[in-house]
From TrEMBL:
UniProt protein name: 30s ribosomal protein s5
Domain of life: Eukaryota
Entry keyword rRNA-binding: yes
GO biological process, one term: translation
GO CC terms: ribonucleoprotein complex; ribosome
Pfam families reported in the protein's UniProt record: Ribosomal_S5
Keyword terms: Ribonucleoprotein, Ribosomal protein, RNA-binding, rRNA-binding
Ribonucleoprotein is among the record's keywords: yes
One MF annotation (Gene Ontology) recorded for this entry: structural constituent of ribosome
Residues annotated as domain S5 DRBM: 24-87
Length: 93
């Protein structure tokens, strides 16, 4: 499997899938920076969208928000694992 890395703003995203200890494939779809204007200035936070699946018809997606990118990704992965549903496969796709 070739590994491609692309820049997304200041952050690097890998286009390869990761497999965790549960046997689930984890895919990071997008990371977005969000700014909220408050009295003292702008408050920056990040959102992450991830998809988790087992390759056999179970898939889940998660959307996490946090002040730092790794925490947002971790939260979205947790939400994706909790939000799993069965999808019917047709000819393996």
């Amino acid at each position: 499997m070739s590994r491609q890395v692309r820049a997304y703003g200041k952050y690097l995203m890998s286009s390869t899938d990761r497999e965790n200890s549960d046997g689930l494939l984890e895919k990071l779809i997008a990371v977005n920076r969000v700014a909220k204007t408050v009295k003292g200035g702008r408050q920056m936070s990040f959102t992450a969208l991830t998809v988790v699946g087992d390759g056999e018809g179970k898939v889940g997606f998660g959307y996490g928000k946090a002040r730092e990118v790794p925490v947002a990704i971790q939260k979205s992965m947790e939400y994706a694992r909790k939000n799993m549903s069965k999808v019917e496969l047709n000819n393996g796709t």
